[in-house]
Specification:
Layout lengths: L11 H19 L7 H4 L5 E8 L11 H7 L3 E7 L4 E7 L13 H17 L4 E7 L3 E8 L2 H12 L12 H11 L5 E6 L8 H10 L1 E8 L11 E5 L6 E5 L3 H25 L2 E6 L4 H23 L13 E2 L2
Length: 327
């Protein structure tokens, strides 16, 4: 059975207060940062045919116009202009493990702030944002709309969701598969999750990335990476309910815990890189402004990389480790 957490931000007034705080502390400081970089950072989904020109060696063969090529006996490619308006979707994992936080903020709260800021930045330019929310299943679909009221509605729906107490593992592949069914047109997609789940989602994520522009926003808490010396503590698996009493005074145990966490990190980053998605890592002690700045730096760097590769100048094919921008 789910129990409803009494979150003051779950009310309409609470969501308004949170968004107002984010607008003053984050969005106001970012105001103007994206204005001149609109086409660099945000891509429209629609394409209009603008012109035809002769094929060059770096062109995408998918843009070859075979009818014109057959008539002129010379390969020609279509050139497109991109619509300014886009649709963005947030695929938000709100399973039991996301309610963990070792200090004052949980992974859920930092996810809500990140989604609120990014959704407001997008809707300020007339773009539309939608969301799929996952608990033990995909139970909420919020169709894409524009405007501040819609962002408030999205944040309120995230805040008012009950804390998951039902035992069971997170099936991230179900969330990704649902997105493939729901999102009809090419969109910008943010997968917001801690990725604490069984394998099997990697192939579905790769399929999603072939059609959409996907960014994985990976949530984590510093305590999941390394345990301090706290004496005897009880570790609880939020999704299976299993409990284990451990002695964190044991330096050997802490070393084994850190090694296992590092191995899990490597496996996860490799999986995300193989799926072909950009990755932003977001910790519970992160500053949302810094996270957005890392994201914009990532988008600019990838745009420069794309242009350089297209002209044959070449650049390193990754940013950071496996394309992840970390604090």
């Amino acid at each position: 059975m789910n129990t409803l957490a009494l979150d003051p931000e779950g009310s309409a007034a609470g969501a308004e207060a949170l968004l107002l705080r984010l607008e003053w502390t984050v969005i106001r400081r970012l105001d103007g940062l994206l204005q001149g970089d609109y086409r660099t950072l945000w891509r429209g989904a629609g394409l209009d045919l603008a012109d035809l020109r002769e094929y060059q060696h770096h062109d995408d063969v998918r843009h070859i116009d075979w009818n014109v090529t057959a008539r002129l006996q010379q390969p020609y490619v279509r050139q497109f202009t991109e619509e300014r308006e886009l649709s963005a979707w947030f695929l938000v994992d709100l399973s039991a493990s996301v309610d963990f936080g070792s200090d004052t903020r949980t992974k859920r709260s930092i996810a809500r702030e990140f989604v609120g800021v990014l959704a407001r930045l997008l809707t300020r330019h007339g773009n539309r944002v939608g969301a799929l929310l996952y608990g033990t299943e995909v139970d909420t679909v919020i169709p894409p709309r524009a405007g501040r009221l819609h962002v408030l509605h999205l944040m309120q729906r995230m805040a008012r969701r009950p804390v998951e107490t039902a035992l069971g593992v997170t099936r991230l592949d179900e969330l990704l598969a649902a997105a493939q069914r729901v999102i009809k047109r090419r969109s910008t997609v943010f997968v917001v999750s801690d990725f604490i789940c069984p394998t099997g989602w990697e192939a579905v994520l790769a399929q999603l990335a072939r059609r959409h522009e996907v960014t994985a926003v990976r949530l984590y808490d510093p305590l999941e990476m390394e345990l301090p010396d706290l004496g005897l503590v009880t570790l609880n698996d939020a999704e299976s309910g299993e409990q284990l009493v451990v002695d964190t005074r044991d330096a050997g145990f802490r070393a084994r815990f850190a090694a296992a966490a590092a191995e899990r990190e490597t496996t996860l980053r490799t999986a995300l890189a193989t799926a072909g998605v950009d990755t932003l890592e977001l910790a519970t002690d992160d500053d949302v402004l810094d996270a957005i700045l890392r994201f914009t730096d990532l988008r600019r760097s990838l745009a420069i990389l794309s242009r350089r590769n297209a002209t044959g100048n070449g650049l390193p094919t990754h940013l950071g480790e496996h394309g992840a921008i970390r604090p």
